[in-house]
Design brief:
Blueprint (H helix, E strand, L loop, with lengths): L1 E5 L2 E6 L2 H9 L14 E2 L8 E2 L5 E6 L2 E6 L5 E3 L7 E6 L5 E6 L2 E6 L5 E3 L8 E3 L4 H7 L8 E3 L5 E8 L5 E6 L6 E6 L9 E8 L6 E3 L9 E8 L5 E8 L4 E8 L7 E7 L13 E2 L5 E5 L6 E5 L5 E4 L7 E8 L4 E6 L8 E6 L6 E2 L6 E6 L5 E8 L2 E9 L4 E6 L14 E4 L8 E7 L2 E7 L3
Antiparallel strand pairs: 1-2, 2-3, 4-5, 5-6, 6-7, 8-9, 9-10, 10-11, 12-14, 13-14, 14-17, 15-16, 17-18, 19-20, 20-21, 21-22, 23-24, 24-25, 25-26, 27-28, 28-29, 29-30, 31-32, 32-33, 33-34, 35-37, 36-37
Length: about 450
């Protein structure tokens, strides 16, 4: 546990310091996906922390400035000092820079020297560079996620979303937190009214002028940019566009410079709607092909595409779905994912060969398994629970064998709620066990019968 002080306030970096220390001392690169889930910051405002690639630094926004904390020792320092608020900090993949947004413009700051550079200049109240408005964070990229920019893998460029709010009608909201209520006007596109105009730009981290990615083919309609990413060599931007009705989705690729006409790799269509998932990025394989999740068959399954967008094969199949793709072990051609092959009432961890053979369930007990793999895909942390068991955490190898138990999470207060226990309560429903209900007046008696 690392402790540090900012002004008159004491802060605690709890739970994550051990993981960060181990990651920083490891010979290989730490698994960044593992670290944020173990971090709790006692800060009096919402702030998404960002972890440096070597696991040694944590950056976050506090009282309008960007702060960096050393994971080992807890020494804290501010890397910005400006009267305007800075938000949404993210380390570059090489760990040298931290990008952030100030006054709806995109900036980068050198994490060591604190020298900052402004990358965009046209941001204002109605023009948002690298930050989402209400509808994009709530309906497209996920509630609470306002970050609208993405570093290239080589740390040389950033691709960002620009949102023009001028066409969006203002919606009146009453802020009743203060003693005297305030009236606020929020850009809010009601059904049938205009959305913000979205554009995509790339900009070099050294501060050269941004380049717009050509979205002219979609200019005649109301479209959404629902996912943005890079190719592994940082030469191209891969982004997904769909219509407002969400009946189709295009996967496009554009040059880093933004020039020329982007190439549409393929289009997903459906009679219902195509559900975008900005968290599920394209998984690239060593031969340049990539993996894609699609619900085109009625069930979400894995497909392999060549680099030019040609469908090569369907990898998984059946009356069940792949819930999430964890990654691929390129040395052994094993794909790791979570799915519902055993039951739709839970999620298990699976692996399958790239050619579709050797499908194997790695989780033993039925229930809800949530897996986080290391970058080498050799081990994963599994959080498992079911209707009678709070989540238990274990470290497993990529063949499903257990390395050790991390947390059994025993809750002794639940031990008496086992078979054929009777509990009297005034509650009218309890979705915890199979139950038989007898009501007398205002009192309800629940007869618990735990099922196998």
């Amino acid at each position: 546990m690392a402790r540090f002080r900012l002004g008159r306030r004491n802060f605690v970096l709890a739970g994550g310091s051990a993981a960060l220390s181990a990651a920083a001392q490891a010979q290989s690169a730490p698994p960044p996906a593992l670290i944020p889930r173990r971090l709790l910051f006692a800060v009096p405002e919402r702030s998404r922390a960002t972890i440096s690639p070597d696991g040694k630094l944590v950056a976050f926004s506090y009282l309008g400035d960007i702060w960096v904390v050393e994971a080992i020792g807890g020494k804290a320092r501010s890397v910005t000092m400006h009267r305007a608020h800075e938000i949404n900090p993210v380390f570059s993949p090489d760990g040298r820079f931290i990008a952030f947004v100030r006054n709806n413009n995109l900036y980068v700051v050198d994490a060591a020297t604190q020298r900052e550079r402004q990358l965009t200049t046209d941001g204002n109240e109605n023009m948002l560079d690298g930050i989402f408005d209400w509808v994009y964070q709530e309906e497209v990229y996920g509630r609470g996620n306002f970050r609208g920019y993405w570093w290239s893998p080589d740390s040389s460029h950033i691709v960002y979303l620009q949102l023009d709010e001028r066409p969006v009608k203002r919606f009146t909201v009453v802020d009743h937190i203060p003693t005297m209520q305030k009236i606020e006007l929020e850009p809010y596109p009601k059904a049938g009214f205009p959305n913000p105009i979205a554009k995509l730009f790339t900009v070099a981290a050294n501060g050269t002028a941004p380049h717009e990615v050509n979205t002219e083919p979609y200019s005649g309609g109301d479209f959404l940019i629902v996912s943005v990413d890079w190719t592994p060599d940082s030469s191209k931007v891969v982004y997904q566009i769909q219509n407002r009705e969400q009946t189709w989705l295009d996967v496009n690729m554009a040059d880093l410079s933004g020039g020329g006409t982007p190439k549409t790799l393929f289009r997903e269509t459906t009679k219902a709607w195509v559900e975008p998932d900005h968290n599920q990025k394209i998984t690239w394989l060593k031969d340049g092909s990539f993996l894609w999740l699609s619900e085109r068959s009625g069930f979400k399954h894995l497909y392999q595409y060549t680099a030019d967008g040609t469908l090569e094969k369907q990898i998984t199949n059946g009356p069940w779905e792949v819930r999430s793709l964890h990654g691929i072990d390129n040395h052994n051609d094993w794909i790791y994912f979570s799915g519902t092959e055993r039951s739709v009432l839970g999620t298990d961890v699976y692996r399958v060969h790239l050619d579709g053979s050797g499908l194997a369930r790695l989780s033993d007990a039925a229930g809800e398994h949530r897996a986080i793999f290391n970058p080498a895909m050799t081990q994963y942390v599994d959080s498992w629970g079911d209707i009678q068991t709070p989540p238990q955490v274990s470290l497993l190898r990529n063949d499903g064998s257990r390395v050790r138990v991390i947390d059994t999470n025993e809750v002794t207060a639940l031990f008496h709620l086992r078979r054929h226990q009777t509990w009297t309560t005034s509650a009218h429903s309890l979705d915890a066990f199979q139950r038989r209900v007898e009501s007398t007046g205002s009192q309800t008696t629940l007869h618990f019968e735990a099922t196998e």
